[in-house]
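Reviewer has doubts. Consider these tokens.
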Amino acid sequence: MPSPRRSVEGRPLGVSASSSSSSPGSPVHGGGGSRFEFQSLLSSRATGVDPACARLRASESPVHRRGSFPQAAAGPSQAPPPPLPEEDRMNLNPSFLGIALRSLLAIDLWLSKKLGVCAGESSSWGSVRPLMKLLEISGHGIPWLVGTLYCLCRSDSWAGREVLMNLLFALLLDLMLVALIKGLVRRRRPAHNQMDMFVTLSVDKYSFPSGHATRAALMSRFILNHLVLAIPLRVLVVLWAFVLGLSRVMLGRHNVTDVAFGFFLGYMQYSIVDYCWLSPHNAPVLFLLWSQQ
């Protein structure tokens, strides 16, 4: 006859908890599990937090996730992305020189466009455009070369030949230096320019520096140093050089910096010609060949 004092599971009530259960996860193992659950239940009720929500948050904690997925944590780390090319990197700290150059370029383009009042027939000063184009021809290299060669052929004095020979040397030096710099820099002419210039060459599609400005500065300094002129004529020569350089911007042929550098280059070119001055003493062969012709 079965004893009435048996538990629901069929285990006698008199058997001790230590002998009846040996699994460490049992609530009665050592008494620790039941006490921990009882204390956590009391603390959750005291703070007003649902025990199920507390267990869910504990399971979603970073420590629990790292412990639950040891293979993902121990997996191989991803390789860092390759560095971007130098031209694709963003320069977050530009230099002061770069900022100054960009600002100067922006001011140059803006001022050149404002001064280009004769760039077209429909411009604000379009009626003055024919006069500016005539002034443009006066500073072209071909009329200066042809005129110098003609005067050199007609000259009958050694002093006149010496001056004209150096003038020819200065003109050839100007053409070579301007063509060389234009081919190296390759700065395009302003967008509002009309390509209707007088006798253009392949390098004339570039803008920097202005060949008319270099020639104007070179010729004016050469004339003022080797020709005896009255003061009004000397002022007229300087005014011609200045107006010729200004007309390059007004016609839209060049930017302001092209003309400014052209004036500087022409001024320095005369210094080179003066330093390498050709005379019957240092270049006798050249003068003898010319005199025989």
